Amino acid sequence: MYKIMLVDDERNIRNGIKHLIDWDGLDCEVVSDCRNGKEALDYIKDNEVDILVTDIKMPVIDGLELCKNIKENKYDVEVIILTAYSDFTFAQKAIKYNVVDFVIKNEFIEELPSAVEKATEIINEKRKESKKIQLSINDYNEYRLHILTRLALSQNVSIKDIEKYNIDKYNYCISACEINYYDGEKENNSSIKMIKNFLNITMKDYDSEVVPIKDNHIMIVILIDKNKEVTLNKIVQHFNEILLMVEEFMRLDIKLGISQIINETSEINNAYKKANEALSRITTKGNTLYIYDSEPMIDENAVNINIEQFTKEICDITLKGDKENAEIKIKDLGEELVKSDKSFEQCKMDILIICSSIIRNVVKYDISQDFNQIEKKLYKSINDAKTMFSLIDISKHIVDIAISICTDKKDIRNKLVTNVDNFIKINYKNNISLQDISNALFLNSSYLSRAYKKSTGITVTDAINMYRITKAKLLLKNSELKIYEIGLEVGFSDPAYFSHVFVKYNNQNPTEYRNSNM
Fold first, then answer.
1. Does domain 166-291 have CATH number 3.30.70.20?
2. What number of other Cβ atoms are within 10 A of residue 7's Cβ?
3. β-pair type (28-34, 2-7)
4. Where are the beta strands (DSSP E) in 93-234?
5. Does domain 2-126 have CATH number 2.40.30.60?
6. What is d(CA 113, CA 431) in angstroms, rounded to the nearest whole number?
């Protein structure tokens, strides 16, 4: 629906136009009627108006001055002039202000609808053209982003495309960014949109692109016009402002690795690698950035780390349940790795070795845990990590899991017995075996048999039969069921076998037991 404004110093004219024209039929609504040009301009500044119908002769600001203001301020409003026969010479002066049409006041009922339709056609054409331009801009920006992404990931890009999309017009600064979400919330799209907004606020003098790479990892590309002199310190200052905004407005933990400024498109991939290398060196908690140093980041005289020794010490401390010292040792390891001559991929492998060793050492304490699933999650987390801080955090999480399992070994063994006993209580009427129970509890049957007997002094088969006989004795005392019916009720399909087992645990058969308890 098109929004109409009426401007005339005569109330009767305004009311007549408002009520005598079928605005609904024209898909229009009158949103305002004003007495002069000043009131009209005040309204247009803060409100949307599509078509303005105005008189020429008015106090304060007349119609011609109103048209002039609209054109000079580039308000997107189509103007229709109301004029008397005697004012037509004035109306002609309004032509230079791109007025849509002129309508004689005395004939507005017949002529104004046609003028409004002409105005809406112009509006529709402008909107179509604007949409085409916007689509063209969006397509351009989208493909430019595609090219920058390919360059960063070292994929082929033609020289023609680089020139067509002005990729070589800029210098670049690349940032590798890891996003961690508080409380496990993950709204990647909204987070990226917010970061784009922060970039637009803090780096309004440069173009920028935000590229989702994988899960919580994104790349930020700062495009700097080659004609502008911009230092890395200035870019870093802007990134620090973004981190402050994130801390204030978003539930995110963001870490940034920042490359040096480069002036060749062929260096974009190398800059992205350096940004990732800088990112990997972050060990601290909270919103942080690390700048890639053009000098070697690694000490050439660094001593190799004894990972075997670290593994043994961390495992021993963990198995003792000493969480505080285990975490201190892990933090020490992280700092040593940062100082070492190891690549980040090698650091990942070292952390994986240590965490896997911890898991293998706690398996014996609670075999009911799905350690395969824990190791799968561990591998994925380490593989996805982009910072040393993330690797340290993953290691601490594995220590937490291990300590929770090892805190009280007796309780853990009792848990196995309890799980077996509960299964028997629920399923004793069915034809169950040791294998059925081990399958249900995801345990090795040999391990289950040994662990259960060690804790209780009896076998799992004894436990099944003893529970069944206990139930049978209650039925023999308190029911009139026949012996074979009681056998069936407690899980024995063969009456002879029921009698044999009953004698084994009571030194008398079911009939004798019933008679002695009458």
1. no
2. 27
3. parallel
4. 101-104, 170-181, 207-214, 217-225
5. no
6. 89
Model pTM? 0.47
Report the DSSP beta bridge partners of residue 288: 255
Q: What's the pLDDT at 133?
A: 46
Residue 441 burial by Cβ neighbours in a 10 Å radius (0-12, 13-18, 19+): middle
Check whether domain 411-516 has CATH 1.10.10.60, yes or no: yes
pLDDT tens for residues 91-109?
566 666 778 888 888 888 8
Percent composition of the chain: helix, strand, coil (DSSP 3-state, to 5)? 60, 15, 25
Q: Is 415 helix (H, G, I), strand (E, B) or coil?
A: helix
Instruction: Tell me the pLDDT tens digit for each residue of 115-142.
Output: 999 999 988 888 776 665 444 545 667 7
- Between 414 and 357, where is the model more confident? 357
What letter represents residue 455's amino acid?
Answer: S
pLDDT digits (tens, 9 = 90+) for 278-315: 888 887 777 888 888 754 444 455 556 788 888 889 98
Q: Which residues contact 386 (CB under 8 A, 6 or more apart)?
A: 176, 178, 217, 255, 276, 279, 280
